[in-house]
């Protein structure tokens, strides 16, 4: 068993009271002396989130309700019999309510506002206390429906289901965002790869064009050089022929006489 918890409010009754060590089916736990629940909720004999089935589970659930709402433990005449309280809340168990739903309905109206009368601190006579419970629960009935089908869905269960649905929607939205992000990332990689290929293609085309230009320039220069050499050779041949003609012309031959 761990050391006693620090001086902190109880998670159920929110009171700053010392903890006491008690034995539960789960072992020894620290329990709030005021509301008799542990911080982990391990001292409940029936899970307040489950819907009771039958009288045995129903009375066990009512005892848990008395743990959660201290004012339901005792009337002016003495301790309140869980069986009497069970007869009041039994139709709501049959309608699918759990103890969390019953507690929710006893603390507030369907519109979220608190009940107009006082809380549970005043110790009332037994009949008056049971009537207060019955009257507060009656606020969660549909006036225009027949008995047996006139109880609204449990407020705590509806809120939990709504929170679960919201969590599922958030998870679905997150998965959708991740999928879109991965698609965008893949598209960006493909675009970058395509851009690199296009850039490489442009560089290769430019290099090929430059090579053709250099080759054509070389061929032009080679042709010009060949033409110059041929022209020079023709001039040299013409000059040589001209000189040869001068030497063989009779007018230019020397006279023997």
Give a description of the structure.
Strands 1-2 form a two-stranded antiparallel sheet. Strands 3-4 form a two-stranded antiparallel ribbon. Helices cover 56% and strands 6% of the residues. The chain starts with 18 loop residues before the first strand and ends in a 9-residue tail after the last helix. Strand 1 and strand 2 form a beta hairpin. The relative contact order is 0.06. The model has no long low-confidence stretch (mean pLDDT 77). It is mainly alpha-helical and 257 residues long. Helix 2 (82-94) packs parallel to helix 4.
**What is the rounded Rg?**
51 Å
State the strand order across the main sheet: 1-2
Number of strands: 4
> DSSP helix count?
5
Largest sheet: 2 strands, antiparallel
One letter per element, helices H and strands E, the order comes to: EEHEEHHHH
First-residue to last-residue Cα separation: 156 Å
User: Can you tell me the residue ranges where pLDDT is under 50 for at least 5 consecutive residues?
Assistant: none
Percent range for β-strand residues: 5-15%
Helix content: 55-70%
Q: Assign the structural class, choosing from mainly alpha, mainly beta, alpha/beta, alpha+beta, or little secondary structure.
A: mainly alpha
Oligomer state equals: single chain
Shape estimate: rod-shaped
Mean pLDDT score: 77
């Amino acid at each position: 068993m761990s050391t006693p918890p620090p001086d902190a409010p109880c998670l159920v009754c929110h009171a700053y009271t010392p903890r006491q060590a008690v034995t539960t089916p789960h072992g020894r736990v620290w329990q709030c002396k005021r509301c008799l629940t542990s911080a982990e909720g391990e001292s409940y004999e029936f899970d307040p989130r489950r819907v009771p089935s039958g009288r045995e589970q129903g009375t066990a659930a009512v005892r848990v309700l008395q743990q959660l709402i201290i004012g339901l433990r005792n009337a002016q005449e003495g301790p309140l019999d869980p069986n009497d309280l069970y007869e009041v809340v039994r139709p709501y168990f049959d309608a699918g309510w759990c103890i969390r739903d019953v507690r929710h309905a006893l603390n507030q109206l369907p519109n979220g506002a608190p009940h107009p009368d006082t809380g549970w601190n005043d110790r009332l006579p037994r009949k008056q206390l049971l009537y207060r419970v019955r009257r507060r629960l009656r606020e969660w009935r549909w006036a225009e429906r027949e008995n047996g089908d006139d109880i609204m869905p449990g407020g705590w269960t509806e809120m939990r289901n709504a929170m679960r649905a919201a969590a599922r929607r958030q998870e679905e939205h997150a998965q959708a965002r991740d999928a879109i992000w991965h698609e965008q990332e893949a598209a960006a990689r493909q675009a970058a790869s395509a851009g690199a290929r296009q850039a490489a293609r442009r560089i290769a085309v430019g290099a090929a064009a430059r090579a053709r230009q250099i080759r054509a320039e070389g061929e032009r220069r080679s042709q010009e050089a060949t033409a110059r050499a041929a022209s020079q050779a023709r001039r040299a041949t013409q000059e040589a022929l001209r000189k040869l003609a001068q030497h063989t012309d009779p007018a230019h031959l020397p006279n023997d006489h």
